[in-house]
């Protein structure tokens, strides 16, 4: 085999090159503005981290700067519920791409209050409802897990972001109440919304999130060597990330990046190279489908330069 087909193993020059190319590219999209506090983010910021399976981390740019994790947290709440409750979750949420925006209401009525997948807001609300029922403290359970996996004891919520989102949370409230009318939410909707907004407000850096996602590259094994998920469950989450993790842009993301990924409207994206490493990139400017413009471009370049891909 020609050496050019061997995957790159030294990530440092790759990250430097990506940062240089991103810096030279104008047009970074716009920060989310439907959550007023997120609108204040500077679209010029850019960071990227790669975590190897043993916890070694490489980073470039603002890779240690905490940002609003938002929907990236949906991967972790899904993993926690599956680890505690096996497959029961799938009675209340599907595994199909939605082809609709992340906060869309339209499919829910046609499909009897069962959201298409756990990564659109409706599906994530079901997941958080189940985690709340299982633990009595969904957001606290998530925070403890992220602290343990990232090794960062200071990782926390930003209560101001949670309050900002709550004050503008009519659409998520509508989704939750609508699903409750079908019996697909088990607890009180106001409590669920509190938990969900706190969950979304997690502040974490690229390093934190790349490390925290490591179990998805280690086939379900946590940072301390204990088992969170079976090998099959880890594969299943990666599959749902690939098909649904970037909403109605999942096809384009698979085409360009070729890795399971999950974005958030804070401008972060995590991605997984199973058996090899996890990545997190952050830049707050978004495209119209809610994915970081520079983030997708950086991941696209990463898989091009390294040859790492699930394909
Ligand atoms: N907290 C955001 C919301 O519910 C998360 C959306 C996202 O990151 N795509 O609208």
Automatic annotation (TrEMBL):
Domain of life: Bacteria
Keyword Nuclease part of the UniProt annotation: no
Catalytic activity: L-glutamine + H2O = L-glutamate + NH4(+)
Major enzyme class: hydrolase
Residues that bind substrate: 71, 121, 165, 172, 196, 247, 265
Keywords: Acetylation, Hydrolase
PANTHER family, alphabetized: GLUTAMINASE
The protein's name: Glutaminase
Taxonomic source organism: Streptomyces lavendulocolor
């Amino acid at each position: 085999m020609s050496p050019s087909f061997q995957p790159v193993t030294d990530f440092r020059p790759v990250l430097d090159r990506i940062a240089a190319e991103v810096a030279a590219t104008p047009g970074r999209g716009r920060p989310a503005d439907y959550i007023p506090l997120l609108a204040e983010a500077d679209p010029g910021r850019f960071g990227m981290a790669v975590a190897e399976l043993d916890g070694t981390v490489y980073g470039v740019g603002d890779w240690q700067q905490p940002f609003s994790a938002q929907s990236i947290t949906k991967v972790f709440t899904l993993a926690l519920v599956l680890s505690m409750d096996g497959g029961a979750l799938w009675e209340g949420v599907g595994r199909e791409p939605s082809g609709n925006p992340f906060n869309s209401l339209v499919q829910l009525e046609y499909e009897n209050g069962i959201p298409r997948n756990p990564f659109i807001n409706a599906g994530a609300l079901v997941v958080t409802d189940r985690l709340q029922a299982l633990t009595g403290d969904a957001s606290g359970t998530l925070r403890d897990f992220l602290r343990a996996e990232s090794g960062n004891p200071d990782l926390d919520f930003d209560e101001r972001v949670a309050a900002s989102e709550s004050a503008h949370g009519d659409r998520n409230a509508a989704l939750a109440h609508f699903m409750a009318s079908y019996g697909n939410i088990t607890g009180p909707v106001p409590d669920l919304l509190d938990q969900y907004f706190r969950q979304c407000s997690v502040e974490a850096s690229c390093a934190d999130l790349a490390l925290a996602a490591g179990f998805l590259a280690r086939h379900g094994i946590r940072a301390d060597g204990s088992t969170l998920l079976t090998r099959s469950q880890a594969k299943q989450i990666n599959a749902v990330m690939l098909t649904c993790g970037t909403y109605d842009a999942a096809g384009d993301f698979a085409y360009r990046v070729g890795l399971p990924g999950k974005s958030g409207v804070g401008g972060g994206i995590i991605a997984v190279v199973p058996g090899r490493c996890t990545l997190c990139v952050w830049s707050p400017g978004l495209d119209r489908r809610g994915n970081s413009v520079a983030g997708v471009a950086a991941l696209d370049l990463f898989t091009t330069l390294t040859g790492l891909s699930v394909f």
